[in-house]
Write a structure and sequence with these properties.
about 80 residues; about 80% helix; mainly alpha
Amino acid sequence: MKKAVLGLFWFSLAAFLLLGVGIVGGQLIGVLTGQGAIVAGAASLLNWPAFSLATVCSLAAFALGYFPSEKQPAHGE
């Protein structure tokens, strides 16, 4: 179960960060070209998936705190 939650965490982290880059990149293109519709469109198209994946990532991180940690050997053993 821990591996599944950890996989979900890493997937959602990577996906929402890439969507965030897409939002900023789309807005940058819109600003540089002077197209306000691109600026608004990039945000309206990608905000919901990015925020949803960020929520999934945070919930997975929260859940990972409840799994027991793997014991590491003491430094003299």
